[in-house]
Amino acid sequence: MITVFEVANIRCGGCANTITKALKEAGFEEVSVDLSCEPRKVTADIIDEAQSAHFKAILRSLGYPLIGEEEGVIDNAALKLKSFVSCAVGKFSTDEETKK
Fold first, then answer.
1. pTM of whole model > 0.85?
2. CB-side exposure of 42: number of CA atoms within 13 Å?
3. DSSP string covering the chain
4. Are 96 and 88 in contact (CB under 8 A)?
5. How far apart are CA 48 and CA 67, in angstroms?
6. Sign of the CA dihedral running 48, 63, 66, 28
7. 63-88: b (≥16 Cβ within 10 Å) or e
8. Angstrom distance (rounded) from CA 15 to CA 2
């Protein structure tokens, strides 16, 4: 079932590229990131609760928790730092693909 999640810390195409690539590598299908709205929305085909939990864990590990999942100032700061790194990796990957 196509499911839409509101996700924190997504700022640009680099973030979207990192998220899309990580989720597709984990086997998720129909992945898209909507940068035209705030909060940003990530859509994927989720078949059950276990897959939903895995989806959320991947996002969080990259620094992109669901809206409302941030826990305290330290956790929020750590997630933002992770998202900056993920964003930079996504931008670098996008730049490398453009050069090919």
1. no
2. 33
3. -EEEEEESS--SHHHHHHHHHHHHHTT-EEEEEE-SSSSEEEEEE--SHHHHHHHHHHHHHTT-PBTT---HHHHHHHHHHHHHHHHHHHHHHHHHHHH-
4. no
5. 20
6. negative
7. bbbbeeebeeeeeeeebeebbeebbe
8. 21
Q: Tell the burial category of 1 from Cβ atoms under 10 Å away from its Cβ (0-12, 13-18, 19+).
A: exposed
Compute the residue count for the chain: 100
Sign of CA pseudo-dihedral 47, 28, 16, 72: positive
How confident is the model over 15-50, as pLDDT tens digits? 999 999 999 999 998 999 999 999 999 999 999 999
